[in-house]
Fold each of these.
Amino acid sequence: MSTTAPSNSAERAAQATGRTPGQPYRLSDTGLIDRSRLLSFEFDGKRYTGFRGDTLASALLAAGVRLVGRSFKYHRPRGILTAGSEEPNALVELRSRARREANTRATVAELFEGLNARSQNRWPSLAFDVGAINSIFSPLFVAGFYYKTFMWPASMWEKLYEPVIRRAAGLGRASTEPDPDSYEKAHAYCDVLIVGGGAAGLIAALVAGRSGARVILCDEDFLLGGRLNGDQREIDGRSGSAWARSVESELVCLPDIRILRRTTVFGAYDDGRSGQRTFGAVERVSDHLPVPLPHQPRERLWKIIARRTVLAAGAIERPIVFGGNDRPGVMMASAVRTYVNRFGVAPGGRVALFTTCDDGWKTAFDLAKSRVSVEAVVDARDETSPILLAQAKAIGVRALCGAHVVDVHGVRGLTGITVRDRDGRLSKLPADTLAVSGGWNPSVALSTHLGGRTRWSDVISAFVAGDPPRGMTVVGAAGGSFSLADALREGSAAGSEAAEAAGFTVPAPQQWRTDDEFTGVTPLWYVKESRSKAFVDFQHDVTREDVALAAREGFRSVELLKRYTTLGMATDQGKTSNVNGHAIMAALTERAIPELGTTTSRPPYTPVALGAFAGHHRGKHFKPTRHTASHGWAQAHGAAFVEAGQWLRAQWFAAPGEKDWLETVSREVKAVRSSVGVCDVSTLGKIDIQGPDAGLFLDRVYVNLFSTLPVGKVRYGLMLREDGLVMDDGTTARLEIDHYLMSTTTANAAKVMQHLEHARQVLWPELDVQIVAVTEQWAQYAVAGPHSRRLLERLLGDVVDVSNTAFPYLACAKFSWHEVPTRLFRISFSGELAYELAVPARYGDAAIRAIMAAGEVLGVIPYGTEALGVMRIEKGHVAGNELNGTTTADDLGLGRMMSKKKDFIGRVLAGRPGLTDPNRAVLVGVKPVDLASRLYAGAHFLTAGTQATLENDQGYITSVAFSPMLGHWIGLGLLTRGPQRFGERIRAHSPLRGGDVDVEVVSPVFFDADGTRLKD
Amino acid sequence: MNVVSMTHQTFTPKVPFGGLPIVSATGRGVIATDRDGLGMATVLVRKDRTTVLSQRVRDLFDIDLPKGPRHVSEGDVAFAGTGPEAWLAMRERGGNSFAASLRDSLGNLASVADQSDGYAVLRLTGPKLLDTFAKIIPIDVHPRAFRSGEVASTVAAHIGVTLWRLNDSGEGSPVFEVALFRSLAASFWHALSEAAAEFGFLVADSSGRDR
């Protein structure tokens, strides 16, 4: 047992007296809480106790805590208004440090041992809040005050106004530490999704589930039953909550049903296949625990794909707008019933009721049954059912019909109310709690997320679903049918219909007997006699007067009203305020409510933590990572890695004592150019192309010829996009007469594969050619440098003859080595004598070790992508920086490769005037005039003596490197009429990175211009 | 120069899922077996040769080449339909030589490419396998929607995968094989083991025994 919980003797004493110490408002005999499990918790630093099954709100009320927060704008004292997820007032900060969670609704926060919560938006304390001065200046803070007050000077906005406003207004503080918990995502498919686990939802699940259909039942509460738990109802002679338990116990035994408790279906999304529809739901797996259990996520985001949906989300009780209706102690009548019946808590000692509907009276009767004193029922309607009046009389409850509550008394909590009777007489009644019922608004948000509209019902004076999406049935209170009998009937019918639509046979429907009830309502949108502030939107502090101001200033449509006053824009999305606000606007502008309409609700229905949308894809796991076969070896040999798309490639291998990467990379380059080095080139795309028409196919995708390539040879190829610009380059080997192997750049591997598939399937389906990606099959290593042949001789021995005669430049071969199929290509990116050796990936680790062992006496070194890049720049080979989607073959100096003898993709559009303009920027090399200067990629070329303006732009530097062979920086770039300007001195202008450098235009080939090294 | 000793070193292959960490609750919710050594090859039929190829495959392996996304096996050979006129052929412990022999025996009826190393394959089973799949795979794997012998190409935690369902285990648990590009093995393993952790995730050796 926790050290903070009272001792067993204390508990025993409490049970003996029927009262729990420290919980003066806990009733002794009602509730669905576990009185054997006492839990201690803290609120604003003070210790309290509650029971398992409590929410933070019910436990606070049991302890007599009624003031729990301060309002957003005016810092008014606020209490607990509701008992559900629609709560606008009782927002607290839960937990601490990295787990600190702002704006948690106390009404849905399940109590756990050691829970720690704090009130928000107050300083220095909840009881005395300096910010409440905003209330005195409230005329300044009316709707639209940002727009009116902080107009001038504009420069003050960021520096002064915004920070001050943000500090004064606003709610909780988010934690700045990384979230220590995990989140996950899950997919679920079902025949029938049921949203809401009240009477209608439970029966729909039971009927559909019994048929064998796959059913998912989601309920946002931790206890199934909905209003059955909060009300005293009877079904077939059993209490409503007992009936709910019995249905639940049958449901859990059905084979294909998934019950998701603590799960909010927050959005309806697009159609899936065959009429399936997608819903988003969030399951609060561990929010009710101090910390998640091992291997459990904090929350789980469900993507639910359902063939049919039953929306049984219930309804939300409507407040009434009257003076002081936000005072702690003013609560929804249904919430009062829930606290009494479900949690065994009396929200106060002396309760008054203000209602415009029959349902509100139930609260008075339930309170009386629990021996809580009921001061009076104020019914705003002129006519009240005589049966209700008789019932009230029988239990001695005073009824005031045709009367209104016009004001409240008490500062931080209610002490009394002022009632205006039907003759206009005012009287003051003592009360510490006022239960309010203005009727019910069906929860139809999910029916409107896909563009469905709502429809005004005069019968229930509320909006109902107008045109729910295909496949969705709205039942029970969500459908505007507020009686229990209707909920059961509609839920059963919808469950049966949904299962049948999915192809299941449903047994004949069962009948249920319920107790009688009254559901009459006559709406009262606001009490016009009230003088003090009357709140419409509690969470955003929008008053009736703000709505009136919006009407006076012409912001009369619901959408303008919303944006001008922020009505309905808080975290509760107007669940308790929108309809009242719209109705008041309708009345003020003398329009009917349906004429005015209502705003559109969008996902999410209730706030969802962003972590749930990310799931496990956080940090390094944001996207998958691809490792080459030599990754482990490279890691062990000190490689620094660079991301190339999803691949991790060794960037360089620092040796001990090297002071920076430049020193490392220069050493690697020099070693390759003087001895031999090895580089993992497995990430380059490899596409296997086979079939009798493979050569013809390649002729059409490359600008140059491949059908003429002899078997056992490799050729460099260039391919264009349809628009004539260069797409990619690489080498393609002919392994057999009908078998080619294409290589692509790492970056374009997938794009080229797609391009070839399109060509094969769509452009030329008549060709007999088959292609498949084999990038992953082969681990491939470039062995480069003057000693590379000697290394291969040592490595391969007599398996293959690698002499210059037997295996000249651009030869390729396949053979068996160590009983492993192996391929060898004599190709070079570095400009050195070089080979690429490929083995099946599982042998890639063994191969790199074998290469290094064979080369040890030759001084072989591993080199990374950075040295590879330096060497290709020294050789003037183009790469991604130049193949950037804006260059033509001519721009890259490769125009001569374009065959005149054949057609190929991009040929026609490459002849467009824009692409053949002689003034186009063409590949050149540049070197700084002052050889000590550094070059920067991205610097723009300017003719000497011209201003740095757009009109004078002559091109730009695409790639730079420090050349260890030349001892200075070199660059490749695209320069207008570049090749005609060798020897010209121009400016490389880089205002972002240090101004101008004078450069000389040179050939892009800086090293071994005649290419003797690679053909040795 | 000691050429002989260099070329006769033994070449040790690496298993794709070897040495990857497991952080899991205890239990047998999901059991994984690395199918390293499985010979795999893509078989893409040459133009207008489907009928002849089907006959050849029937003669060679007693297998009716599946027409859709289905997995058919006989003895130690299996074919899985992965696209229009495209299959993944597999042979138990076939290694790289399977593709070579298949290429020889199918001749000009199909283009064959070795993928034994390109794909990493896991066999997965256990009472909580479908609940684990729900967290990483977006498709419906309910027994009524994804039957034994069916194949799908989809994504698992942003990783492209091809999976097929085999007959249920003796204990009545579903059995799937999942193939993915070898370079992504560690990322897939991470996603799978995180998803299975709450149910208990463990690795069995290639004979199916717990390791």
Amino acid sequence: MSTVAWITARGLFGRRRVLLLLPLPILLIVLAVICDAAGVDAREWGAPVIVGLGLAVLLPVVALIVGTGVLGSEVDDGTIVHILTKPLPRRDIILAKLGVAVVASAVTAAVPLFVAGVLADSVRFGLALAVAAALGAVAYSALFLLLSLLTRRPVLLGLVYILVWEGLLGRFVSGTRVLSIEQYVITVGDRLSPATDILDPKVGLPVALVMAAIFAVGGTLFAVNRLRSFSMAGETS
Amino acid sequence: MSEASVIHDIGYQRYDGPRLGRRAVFGAMYIHGLRAAYGLGRSAKSKIFPWLVVGICLLVGVILAAVKAQTGLEALNYFTYADSMSWLIIFFAAIVAPELVSRDMRSGVLPLYFSRPLRASDYIGAKVASMVTAVWLLLAVPQLIMFLGAAFTTKNGISDVWKELGDLLPGWAYSLLWALVFTGIGLLVASLTGKRAFAAGGIVAVFLMTTPAVGVLSIMPSQDAQELAGLASPSTLVSGVGQWIYPTANTGMMIGRFGPVYLIEAITLVAACMLLLLARYRRVAAL
């Protein structure tokens, strides 16, 4: 199992593709520093930077790149066969890959969010954001890992989820918020640091925790199940 | 192996019909690109995403036309309609641009294309033209529906229809600007990678990264910074140009006296994207 994780991590970080993960965190930190230096009130820049860029874009996009990359790239170039033919339970393969994806995306998202949180309010707010981002990374990674097994175009489908479901519908149709990981992250972050009024939670804490767990566990179980009966499909359309 | 080998004449003939030149290749690639953008002639799977976007755009257009016809209320005009569809346009660009250029690189057919009487500029031109048409149609058809809805329920006869037409034509021009800007950026990003997934992600990332920058700049203390904020993102850039040229558009952009700056940046952006695309394919053509 550790070998699979090691191979996955090397496949993720050993290519030029890892550079794709850099611009968003850097942009977030740069914007936060600029706002802080320009003397803008944190309550004004907190919402567009931390929520608008950090939680709505940085976290899901990083999780999307990493989560679809850990398994999807191996499916794409066909090397997944080498792992599948080893006498390993499929559960272990999924868990190892999910673990790498969670750690990678959690670190990439939590560090800049922590910096922005400290600049905006306090160390406590920064830690709250980092913990919430890590929790979100677990749920997002499980979802996107599953997507990379369900469809040949997981990135596009993941973008639909991020842009249309969370971005467009989450803003106008209140019912979709219950199924939006972004809202769970906001709720958890707000609960961990209640004094700051930058985050504006829309769902309750129990709902957020339970639904995040359902996304994470359900996604993982479904992915294991999918990988059990996985068939290599040729290049389609 | 005793008998002598014989060459049989099995009727091969040279092609001696008319040879179509660059223009025909251009036209064929344009038509093919336009069909590919909407997944026509492809499997049902590749029709899902483009027609999802088309469906939503049409639905919104029909709803707006119906609301205006029934209540006389104009929820969105031709300009704000295009603005509010901006995320769908971005998504559409992320579907279509990789389909048009990344596929060709992935399947290695570029040398075949360039072994025909086709220059790099023709290839780019055909791709750009078909994608601009595809994106423009995405916006223009719902705008036409809105126009028809308004024209057939007018109160004051033909004069209202003319007035409505006077609103529709600038709206179409505005949609063309959207199409040009998003085609330029989309094709440029997509031409960098042969993997469609990365190309789509990269195109969306451009917009995801620039939109928050606008949000941050627009809360800066300086008023000049607020009015120039829209320059940071392509979608607000287009809105700014629309607002300046057509002040009654109500796009909600605060551009102050910087309208010309927006127009200049929009033109420069489109031109720069085209030149970079040309530079990109000069190298491929030389390979």
